[in-house]
Design goal:
- With 85 residues, this protein is α+β, with helices and mostly antiparallel strands.
- The chain has one domain.
- It has two helices and four strands, in the order E-H-E-E-H-E.
- It has helices at residues 12-19, 50-61, and strands at 3-10, 32-38, 41-47, 74-80.
- A hairpin with a 2-residue loop joins strand 2 (32-38) and strand 3 (41-47).
- The protein is flat and about 50 Å long.
- The termini are close together.
Length: 85
């Protein structure tokens, strides 16, 4: 049995910002940080806006040459698997 745990993603903000560099359309970006406060603790989550999401989907559908921004997104996880895997 293969078990995947502790999945984390990194650099989504940088990838979204980088996908707009070739067309110099950084001012059209609508992604933002949402600050969350709960009692005495706080953290931020990155929210991808609808315009950035639409552009990302369009670039992904256009093929590998246009979806290079996805290479900037890093995924980390713990995999537990048998030795023969």
């Amino acid at each position: 049995m293969i078990k995947v745990e502790n999945i984390e993603t990194f650099n989504i903000e940088g990838a979204i910002r980088g996908m707009r560099f070739p067309m110099q359309s950084g001012e059209k970006s609508d992604s933002y940080y949402n600050d969350i406060f709960f009692g005495s603790s706080s953290w931020s989550e990155y929210v991808i806006g609808p315009k950035d999401l639409a552009l990302a989907r369009k670039l992904i559908a256009a093929g590998t040459d246009h979806s290079k921004f996805m290479r900037q997104i890093l995924v980390s996880m713990d995999i537990t698997a048998p030795l023969y895997w």
